[in-house]
Design goal:
This protein is mostly helical. Helix content is 78%, strand content 0%. The longest helix is centred in the C-terminal third of the chain and has 32 residues. The radius of gyration is 21 Å and the shape is elongated.
């Protein structure tokens, strides 16, 4: 789940290191290409406002899958953008649908998820605690 969150949030920042190359490719100024990250962030704010509340009304698992698929389509549209205006529009859409991390966090706390993975999580945490205790004991013995 952490990996999904990391890749989902990274969609907001993929364009920033390559803005100069985008400007060269579309033969536009730095000021014009600056609208790409700006509208990506505005799209993200819009997505937080419009789509995240749907997590309370729609099945969260389904909403997460839909948002991931729509984000993939938006990323594909950005990659195929023939001009700067289409890229800016696709960037706004990418930002608006890159809200999966904010949907995954509440999903992780639902009863269904906890019951499904509770044994794995609890046993993993117990093993970590035992290892930490063993390491701490070994360290204390060496002193």
């Amino acid at each position: 789940m952490a990996i999904v969150c990391a890749f989902a949030v990274a969609n907001l920042y993929y364009n920033q290191p390559i803005l100069a190359e985008i400007a060269k490719s579309f033969h536009v100024s730095a000021a014009e290409v600056g609208w790409i990250p700006t509208l990506t962030q505005l799209g993200y704010a819009s997505g937080l406002l419009l789509f995240v509340p749907l997590g309370d009304r729609v099945e969260q698992r389904r909403l997460i899958i839909i948002m991931l698929l729509v984000t993939a389509v938006n990323l594909f549209a950005a990659a195929l953008s023939p001009n700067l205006n289409m890229l800016i529009l696709a960037s706004f859409a990418i930002g608006a649908t890159t809200i999966v991390a904010q949907l995954l966090i509440p999903f992780a706390t639902t009863d269904a998820f906890i019951h499904q993975f509770s044994n794995t999580i609890i046993s993993g945490k117990l093993r970590q605690g035992v290892k930490l205790h063993e390491n701490g004991s070994n360290y204390a013995l060496e002193i």
